[in-house]
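Write out this protein's structure.
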Amino acid sequence: MQNKVLRFLDLLSDAAKKEEPIDLSRGFRCLTADMIVDYAYQQNFGGLSSKCFKHPIIEAADDLAKVTQWATYFRRTFSILETISQCLPEIVLRYLFPESITVNEFEKASVAQT
């Protein structure tokens, strides 16, 4: 855990020396994800290695969170969309909802590790 925090601090220090802006919210999410995946699965998540802390799984989870907010208010509509999406082939889902595929693949990999 300490190595990951030190890596994160090094990245912040490098950005400060270069006077580059950095998204701390994304940085902390990448740090947290790296620590959790390392602890739970003994694997490298790669969040701190992603450019500008834009890891595809974290970005996909953020996109899904936005959709979930809408689903809270329009339950019937999203229930119908979910039913339809379960009938579509994966290639169509990749085009329409790429974030859901990314998160589902990560979830499947996580389950396979247990």
